[in-house]
Task: inverse folding
């Protein structure tokens, strides 16, 4: 009888150890560096592919004749505004630590918080590329040239390889690092920074931001209560928001995950990531048609470049006399809307809903899975490539378009769920519904008139 009790006790101990071990393994498997929404570094997620998707194949005998690239700049320093936020956080943390010491609760306070100062304290400039961000774009440029040697076999000439970047230095620096030349064209604002010129969008965003903050509050309040109890520090909602921002900056820029990130458990980080993804969805993505429809000048430029490449191919222009690649470097506010214009990361029947200009539901809350992940949609260095293929032996279509997102073939509902389809199908199903809209009308005519115009079209 005693032996039976001992064996039962050992079995119970082993079972508990297995449970604890499984929990530890789950925590180790959660790499926060892949879950930082749009602050995620490209190298952390570029090879995170959708295993459920089997890439379609471009027909045999096809060769690439043109490439369009729309890329976000590489990993950058925090902006001056956010650096000030971290300095304010440092001041408040020291007050909280002092209060905990006076109450004899200091043993619960993580050691790194005592005397902590922002890593960017005293930094004058903000927002420029870090060295890792430069390397990301340099490596991306090498991989693109190796993947498409037919397109990059000639020496650089601006008529063959058109480089465009926004006026913001980090975008121009990204173009330079990727293709070892200075972008000769600082693209017009409505092409790559259309959000800056669109009055209706700026008005929408200003009105919507408080509502987005309100959506985040329940999550922030829940997590604030949890970490305040855990560390015996009287954290505020703003502290939690700033600590999550610090976690993202430390993990992405410095590869530090055992300080601010360690304050949260994986479930809490997943929820915080979701609140960031909600903000991107509502203010930059599918949350409102204007968010992406204002990108029609960019989509028009992409389609036009492919049409010109087809014409040059049909007329058998000699090599060196026509464009082979149009390479653009911009921002998350460019890559996110452009991805939406292509219909990427939609679920089920959502493509039909946006074609009918119906609102989409918000991305589902963890632990449910979702397609809309800021870390995948627009990490630092995130990109979309549209590769135009000539298929002379194909009877159904002589030209195909393939879409690569972060260098991976990505399904487009407008192409029947494939990552490639005939150019004419791409134009009709994906581009045309958006290109019927005019940028000036969308952005500068009063919003109620735009909605009335959409309803009548």
Result:
């Amino acid at each position: 009888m005693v032996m039976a009790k001992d064996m039962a006790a050992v079995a119970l101990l082993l079972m508990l150890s297995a449970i604890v071990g499984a929990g530890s393994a789950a925590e180790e498997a959660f790499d926060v560096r892949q879950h930082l929404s749009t602050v995620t570094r490209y190298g952390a997620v570029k090879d995170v592919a959708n295993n459920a998707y089997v890439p379609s194949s471009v027909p045999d005998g096809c060769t690439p004749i043109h490439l369009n690239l729309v890329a976000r700049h590489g990993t950058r320093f925090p902006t001056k505004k956010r650096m000030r936020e971290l300095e304010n956080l440092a001041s408040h943390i020291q007050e909280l630590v002092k209060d905990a010491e006076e109450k004899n609760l200091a043993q619960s306070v993580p050691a790194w918080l005592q005397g902590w100062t922002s890593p960017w304290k005293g930094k004058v400039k903000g927002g420029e590329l870090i060295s890792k961000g430069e390397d990301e774009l340099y490596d991306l440029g090498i991989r693109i040239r190796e993947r498409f040697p037919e397109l990059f076999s000639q020496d650089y000439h601006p008529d063959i390889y058109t480089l465009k970047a926004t006026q913001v230095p980090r975008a121009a620096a990204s173009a330079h690092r990727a293709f070892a030349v200075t972008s000769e064209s600082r693209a017009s604002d409505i092409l790559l920074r259309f959000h800056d010129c669109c009055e209706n969008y700026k008005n929408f965003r200003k009105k919507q931001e408080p509502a987005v903050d309100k959506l985040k509050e329940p999550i922030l309040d829940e997590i604030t209560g949890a970490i305040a109890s855990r560390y015996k520090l009287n954290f505020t909602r703003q502290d939690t928001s700033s600590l999550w921002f610090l976690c993202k900056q430390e993990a992405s820029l410095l590869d530090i995950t055992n300080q601010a990130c360690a304050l949260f458990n994986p479930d809490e980080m997943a929820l915080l990531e979701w609140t960031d993804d909600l903000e991107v969805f509502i203010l930059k993505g599918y949350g409102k048609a204007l968010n992406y429809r204002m990108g029609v000048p960019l989509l028009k430029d992409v389609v036009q470049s492919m049409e010109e490449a087809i014409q040059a191919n049909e007329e058998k222009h000699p090599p060196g006399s026509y464009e082979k690649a149009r390479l653009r470097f911009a921002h998350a506010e460019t890559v996110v809307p452009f991805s939406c214009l292509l219909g990427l990361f939609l679920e089920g029947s959502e493509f039909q809903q946006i074609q009918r200009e119906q609102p989409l539901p918000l991305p589902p809350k963890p632990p449910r899975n979702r397609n809309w992940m800021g870390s995948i949609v627009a990490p630092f260095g995130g990109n979309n490539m549209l590769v135009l293929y000539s298929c002379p032996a194909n009877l159904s279509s002589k030209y195909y378009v393939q879409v690569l997102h972060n260098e991976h073939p990505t399904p487009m509902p407008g192409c029947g769920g494939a990552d490639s389809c005939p150019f004419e199908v791409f134009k009709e199903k994906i581009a045309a519904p958006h290109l019927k809209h005019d940028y000036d009308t969308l952005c500068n005519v009063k919003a109620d008139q735009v909605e009335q115009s959409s309803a009548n079209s």
User: Anything to note?
Assistant: The longest strand covers residues 63-72. The chain has a mean pLDDT of 90. The radius of gyration is 25 Å. DSSP finds 18 helices and eight strands in the chain.
